[in-house]
Specification:
Number of strands: 14
CATH superfamily: Ribonuclease Z/Hydroxyacylglutathione hydrolase-like
Strand order of the largest sheet: 6-5-4-3-2-1-14
Order of helices and strands: EEEHEHEHEEEEEHEHEHEE
GO molecular function, one term: phosphoribosyl 1,2-cyclic phosphate phosphodiesterase activity
Number of domains: 1
Keywords: Hydrolase
CATH class: Alpha Beta
Pfam family, one: Lactamase_B_2
EC number: 3.1.4.55
CATH architecture: 4-Layer Sandwich
InterPro entries: Metallo-B-lactamas, RibonucZ/Hydroxyglut_hydro
């Protein structure tokens, strides 16, 4: 039976970034994809923004976050979810500094204990007891602990999807209504696959053509997408191996490469 979710609501998902940890173009690389003039082949680090009735929900804070939000003309982020603590999904966190002025309170961060520990360690200046030199000199953040149990954010129920990112590293995907976001994984266990039953829009990482120890390659991602059987699948966390036009021409119906700036209606 499909997982019990809140009644589906229409909302928009914006792909802020769709690239692997080094981005595309890759520094120093002169391959055809890195030199491509096609904007679909220009990929900043992975994040999405979910426009909900009660505000903007950000998933992950990549290093290019400021640039991504400016590009999409996003004036305010109301809450943040984190999939895991790797640098390419975390190190734009300081770009949240301005939002507490407009929110009137610290930015809520929904994350596991492991992610909270990494944030407190990497951004220790935001959590020391010393006084700020001026308002806004450090980010104002409020942790909201999560685990594998469903929780509510801004009026919607979020279902964590436990996944593996290599043999010894746990990450979370997230399901909201009929939409699921599962980047940075090379294994979705059977119990987690059950949590994806009935999903209509499915996003999953597809790093490259050849196998990788911590990510699905394109062939593996297609196989998982066929199991999920969503109406629409988007592949993200893409490397410079994947030329947009060349891959799109060969993908099965209902599957596509995501790209920076893609907007899609989901959750309906």
């Amino acid at each position: 039976m499909p997982i019990d979710v809140l009644p589906a609501r229409r909302f928009e998902v914006v792909f802020l970034g769709t690239g692997t940890s080094v981005g595309v173009p890759v520094l120093g690389c002169e391959c055809e994809v890195c030199q491509s003039a096609d904007p679909h082949n220009s990929r900043t680090r992975c994040a999405i923004l979910v426009h909900l009735e009660q505000g903007n929900l950000l998933i992950d804070t990549p290093p290019e976050l400021r640039i991504q939000l400016l590009r999409e003309k996003v004036k305010l982020v109301h809450s943040v979810l984190f999939t895991h603590e790797h640098a390419d999904h975390l190190f734009g966190l300081d770009d949240l500094r301005l939002f507490p002025f407009r929110l009137g309170h610290p930015v809520p961060l929904y994350c596991t204990a492991k992610v909270e520990h990494r944030i407190r360690t990497s951004f220790d200046y935001a959590f020391t007891n010393r006084k700020e030199t001026h308002a806004g000199s450090v980010p104002q953040l409020a942790f909201r602990p999560i685990d594998t149990e469903p929780f509510e954010v801004m009026g919607v129920r979020v279902v964590p999807i436990p996944m593996k990112h290599g043999p010894n590293f746990d990450v979370l995907g997230f399901r909201i209504g009929d939409f699921a976001y599962c980047t940075d994984t090379n294994e979705i266990p059977p119990a987690s696959m059950k949590l994806l039953e009935g999903v209509r829009t499915f996003v999953v990482g597809a790093l490259r053509f050849t196998p990788h120890p911590t990510h699905f390659n394109l062939e593996e991602a297609i196989a998982v997408a066929r199991q999920v059987n969503a109406k629409q699948t988007y592949f993200t966390h893409l490397s410079h191996d994947l030329d947009y036009d060349a891959v799109m021409a060969k993908l099965p119906p209902g599957m596509a490469l995501a790209y920076d700036g893609l907007h899609t209606n989901a959750g309906f």
